[in-house]
Amino acid sequence: MHIHWFPGHMAKARRVISEHLKLIDVVIELLDARIPESSANPMIQEIVGDKPRVIAFNKADLADSRHTEQWMARFKEQGLPVAAIEAVSGKGLKQLIQYVEQAAAEKLAKWEAKGIKSRPVRAMVLGIPNVGKSSLINRLLGTATVKTANRPGVTRGQQWIKIGNRLELLDTPGVLWPKMDDQAVAFKLAVTGAVKDDVYDYDTVLKQLVDFLRQEYPGRLIERFSLTEIPADNQALLGLIGAKRGCLKSGGLVDYEKAGKILLQEFRNGKLGKITLDFLL
Questions:
Q1: What are the mean pLDDT values of the chain's consecutive 10-residue runs (281 residues total)?
Q2: 54 assigned ligand-binding residue
C-alpha cells in the first residue's frame, strides 16, 4: 500500500506557520491518542524550533488507556508537558490550558520586568488533518464558530481566536509530510481518517485493520459482534460480521464490502472499544 498525500494547501500551511511563529508564545501540538507516534508530524519540530511546546493527546476516550499512559510518560521524559484530552466533551482541557500558561510564564515575566503591559498568552494549534483542532477551539469557546467536519482537509485558512482574557489561539490548517515512507504509519493515518478515503486502497487498509484487530484486540470483536470465536481467516470473519448485521445480497449472500465498511466505521467511532494502534517497544 502506498499513500502519498500532500495537497497544495498543506504546503502553504507550512509557510503560514513559519510566518506566524514570531507572534507565538507557545505551540500546542495536537496528536491522536490512538496513534501518538504516527500522528506526530516530523516537520513540526523543525519548523517550531525552540518555541515552548505543549502536547495534547486528543480523542483519549477512543484510545487504550494503558498505552496512553505509557506514551504520556515517554513524552514527559523528553521534557514535554502532555495532557490527555477529549476535545468534544472538554475533558482534560483545564490541565491543557494550565500547561500552556506555564510554558509561557517565563516569557511573560520578562515582559513584565521590562514594564511591558501584560497580554494574553498567544498559542498556535498544530496537528495533522482530522486530529480535532477546530473541535478543541470550539470547545474552549463554548460555541461552534470554527468550521469542523469529521474528515481531513476542512480547515484551510487561519484565524486568531480569543479564549477569555488569558489566551489567544491561532488556528492553522493541518500539516502532513510530503511523502510517507513508512507505510505502516500510512496505514494508521488512513484507518483513523487522517487522510482522505479516496487516496488509498480500501481493500488493503481493511485487511490490515482486520489483521491488527484479530491479533491485538480479538476480545473486542467477539464482544461487539456477539461471536463465539474468531474465524481462521479474514473473509470468514467479515462473513460472520455481515451475517450478524444483515449485510446480505439477493440470494442470502453476504455483502463483504458493506460488512467491511461497518467494521471500519465502528472502529473509527469507538464502538469497538478503546483501541490504540501505536505500541511502545
A1: 62 78 91 95 83 96 97 96 95 94 88 80 86 86 54 52 82 65 88 86 94 96 96 94 93 93 96 97 74
A2: no
Do 46 and 167 share a domain, yes or no? yes
131 is annotated as contributing to ligand binding: yes
18 marked among binding-site residues: no
Q: Are 155 and 236 members of one domain?
A: no
Backbone angles phi, psi at 256, to 5 degrees: -65, -35
What CATH number did the domain enclosing 214 receive? 1.10.1580.10
The reply to whether 171 sits in an annotated binding site is no
Note the pTM of the prediction, 2 decimals: 0.88
Angle (CA) 42-84-132 rounded to 5° is 60
Asked whether residue 147 is marked as a ligand-binding residue, the answer is no
Q: Is residue 178 part of a domain?
A: no
Residue 58 labeled ligand binder: yes
Closest CA to 136 of 22, 255, 31, 41: 31
Instruction: Answer yes or no: is 194 a known binding residue.
Output: no
